Amino acid sequence: MYAIETNNLTKKYGEKTVVNNVNLKVRKGSVFGFLGKNGAGKSTFINMITGLCIPSSGSFTINVSNSNSQKVPKTKIGVLPDYSSFYDDLTALDHLKYFSRVLKLKLSKNEMVKLLEHVGLKDVENLKVKKYSFGMKKKLGIAQALLNNPDVLFLDEPTSGVDANSILTIHNLIKDISRDGTTIFLTSHNLDEVEKICDEIAIMDRGVINLQGSIKALKKEFQKNITVTIKHGKLSHDKELNNKLNSLGTNIQWGENQVSLVVTEESVIPKINKTFVKMNIDVFRIQVYEPTLEEIFLSTGKNNNSLSKEVV
């Protein structure tokens, strides 16, 4: 089941098309990473599906509610913008009380305190926000976005400008929220972050989705050739081993107590190991190279004629 689904969603400003016929599917309960360079159209896309701007054409669905820009199910979504604004002289608890009234929610003080505890702010719930670090403000923003117990949570750059300790805390918080069944749709320029916490991603370039799918499937798609590195013990039959490896792969590179080669199928890797074992050569470690998310991201940018592709 999909939490978010768009059908040819398009946004034009005059003659300029900012988002062009986007078809996107986000599975319910997933942590979905939305990637793209500055100016790719990410913010405009998010603004449409959160009701901040009207699509020029196309449609979208959030959860089970057929929605257009006039009927976004506000009670089902939470949003953390890139830059959240808070009142310096109010406490975290004061903020939640204020925004719960704005959203016409009937939350008890105890429920709001539990929410602050959930995001790691219970000990500073009565501290004025002007004394908060940037990371603490991000957590408060997440708490605010969770006030209405949303089915879908939109996080725009949730760790941008945050220190390393707070980044780890926010990552764990995102995982906890996801485990509770909330679908999380996040944007980030930190590809390492996306690779660590996201189940699936989409890459947007000039208003078009170039790629979408699970990170595992995308890596497999881009890994046409597999580089295998074997850390081994002392060799006594170098030439014989080289000849055997040549029959299994290409581009053999020798180093100090290690050798690497390129193969086309994973099924060859056990054969490589057996070759070493039969020749009584100790094998200490076998490493299989995987393309990074950064390499996948950069490769889509190089292909100017890239078409929208879903990898499953």
Coarse structural class: alpha/beta
Say what the CATH topology of the largest domain is: Rossmann fold
Distance from first to last alpha carbon: 15 Å
- Note the overall shape: elongated
Largest sheet: 7 strands, mixed
Mean pLDDT over the residues: 88
Unreliable stretches (pLDDT < 50, length at least 5) are 64-70
Widest sheet: strand order? 7-8-9-4-10-11-16
Evaluate the radius of gyration.
25 Å
Q: What share of residues is helical? A: 25-40%
As a percent range, the share of strand residues is 25-35%
Number of helical regions:
10
| CATH class division of the largest domain | Alpha Beta
CATH arch. level architecture of the largest domain: 3-Layer(aba) Sandwich
Briefly say what this structure is:
By secondary structure, the protein is of the alpha/beta class. It contains ten helices and 16 strands. The strands form three sheets. A seven-stranded mixed sheet has the order 7-8-9-4-10-11-16, with helices on one face. Strands 1, 2, 3, 5 and 6 form a five-stranded antiparallel sheet that branches. Strands 13-14-12-15 form a four-stranded antiparallel sheet, with helices on one face.
